Amino acid sequence: MRRTALEIKKNIISLLKGKEISLRELETKLDTSNLTVKRQLEELSYLGIVELIHHKKNPINGRPYTTARLKKFL
């Protein structure tokens, strides 16, 4: 059964509570495509809920990667 964008956003937020997660990990944990995760994170980032962090080099394989974390509110 297909999940709605809102359900996916809720799942992303619950997974990000208290930690920073790579887009690849989110894709695996949510069992959805990379494009879906990226689109939902971009929208959450635009709304100021999530912060996307672009890393230049992965210590394991040397490739660039992106992680996401919840923004801290006052």
Explain this structure to me?
With 74 residues, the protein is α+β, with helices and mostly antiparallel strands. The chain has a single domain, classed as Winged helix-like DNA-binding domain superfamily/Winged helix DNA-binding domain (Arc Repressor Mutant, subunit A). Helices cover 45% and strands 19% of the residues. The chain has three helices and three strands, in the order αβααββ. The chain has helices at residues 5-16, 23-30, 34-46; strands at residues 21-22, 50-55, 65-70. The chain has a three-stranded antiparallel β-sheet. Helix 1 (5-16) packs across helix 3 and helix 2 (23-30) packs across helix 3. The radius of gyration is 12 Å and the shape is globular. The chain starts with a helix and ends with a strand. The mean pLDDT is 92.
Helix and strand arrangement:
Layout: H1 5-16, E1 21-22, H2 23-30, H3 34-46, E2 50-55, E3 65-70
Antiparallel strand pairs: 1-3, 2-3
Question: Unreliable runs, pLDDT <50, ≥5 residues?
Answer: none
Name of the level-1 CATH class: Mainly Alpha
Shape: globular
CA gyration radius, whole angstroms: 12 Å
Q: How does the helix and strand content classify structurally?
A: alpha+beta
Strand order of the largest sheet: 1-3-2
**Content of β-strand:** 15-25%
Order of helices and strands: HEHHEE
Superfamily (CATH H level) name: Winged helix-like DNA-binding domain superfamily/Winged helix DNA-binding domain
Strand tally is: 3
How many structural domains does the protein architecture include?
1
The average pLDDT value, as a whole number, equals 92
Ends distance: 38 Å
Secondary structure tally, helices: 3
- Write the CATH architecture name: Orthogonal Bundle
- Major sheet attributes: 3 strands, antiparallel
The CATH topology turns out to be Arc Repressor Mutant, subunit A
Give the proportion of residues in helices.
40-55%
